Amino acid sequence: MKLAQRIQQIKPSSTLAMSARANAMIAKGINVVDFGLGQPEFQMPEVASEAAILAVRNGYTKYTATAGSDELKEAIIQKFKNENQLSYEKNEIIVSCGAKHSLYNIAQVLFEAGDEVIIPAPFWVTYPDQVLLNDATPVIVKTEEKNQFLMTRDQLQCAITPRTKAIILNSPANPTGAVYSKEDLEPLAELLLATPISIISDEIYEHFIYDGKAHTSIASLSPELKKKTVVVNGVSKSYSMTGLRIGYAAGPKEIIEAMTTLQSQTTSNPTSLSQKAAIAALKEGGAFIQNMVSEYDRRRQLMVQQLNKIPGIRCLLPAGSFYVFPNVQDLLGKGLNTATDLADYLLTEAAVSTVPGEPFGMDGFLRLSYAVPYDKVAEGVERIHQAILRL
Ligand code: PLP
Question: CA end-to-end span of the chain, whole Å?
Answer without folding.
Answer: 46
